[in-house]
Amino acid sequence: MVSLSYADDERENERHRVDFERLWPYARDLYQRPAFRETIEGLPAAWDSPHGRGR
Fold it and tell me: Is 0.70 topped by the overall pTM?
């Protein structure tokens, strides 16, 4: 399993995922694909919000 959680004590960058205008929708798009989603555990509901990438 892969963990995509954000840990404050492991900061390499002061920006959060949602601050990346193009990366955040892409990450949600990947997460919402069943084959990808099955390998991830413990993400907040924000990952299920519409990604607007027009599949």
Answer: no
Neighbour-count burial of 8, counting CB atoms closer than 10 A to its CB (0-12 exposed, 13-18 middle, 19+ buried)? exposed
Cβ burial of 28 (10 Å; 0-12, 13-18, 19+) is: buried
3-state helix, strand, coil in the chain (%, to 5): 40, 5, 55
Distances (CA, A) of 6 to 1, 9, 36, 37, 40: 15, 9, 18, 17, 14
Give residue-wise pLDDT tens across range 24-34.
899 899 999 99
